[in-house]
């Protein structure tokens, strides 16, 4: 019963996150690129955990008296932890990429100088 709720939770969380992000398109190239990357990342990690929990659910349903699901469940727990750590690392990398791509141009200076922000 609990693994079924975990599977349902994974599916709903991934679906709602993608739905909300899909509605967040701004119309600007930089904003839309960030939203698209976030949707792709959410689908990659969310679908991976959904597949893992569904696999455990199927193994429990198929082999009730055997413990085949334990091997997959151990892998599944590590998958959750790695997905969380990857998400936290991705947020920092996405933020640094956004800051590095910021370009300030001084159009009032006749020499055409531009300053790039290097973080």
TrEMBL record:
Keyword Cell division set for record: no
UniProt keyword list: Membrane, Transmembrane, Transmembrane helix
Ranges of residues in domain DUF6534: 8-92
Matching InterPro entries: DUF6534
Superkingdom: Eukaryota
Residues passing through the membrane, by range: 6-26, 38-60, 66-90
Pfam family for this entry, one: DUF6534
Nucleus listed as a keyword: no
Protein name in the entry: DUF6534 domain-containing protein
Species: Piloderma croceum (strain F 1598)
């Amino acid at each position: 019963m609990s693994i079924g709720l975990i599977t349902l939770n994974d599916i709903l969380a991934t679906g709602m996150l993608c739905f909300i992000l899909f509605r967040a398109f701004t119309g600007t190239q930089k904003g839309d690129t960030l939203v698209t990357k976030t949707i792709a990342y959410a689908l990659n990690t969310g679908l991976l955990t959904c597949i893992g929990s569904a696999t455990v659910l199927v193994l429990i349903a198929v082999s009730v008296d055997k413990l085949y699901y334990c091997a997959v469940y151990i892998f599944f727990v590590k998958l959750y932890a790695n997905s969380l750590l990857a998400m936290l690392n991705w947020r920092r990398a996405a933020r640094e990429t956004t800051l590095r791509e910021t370009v300030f141009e001084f159009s009032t200076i006749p020499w055409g100088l531009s300053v790039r922000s290097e973080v």
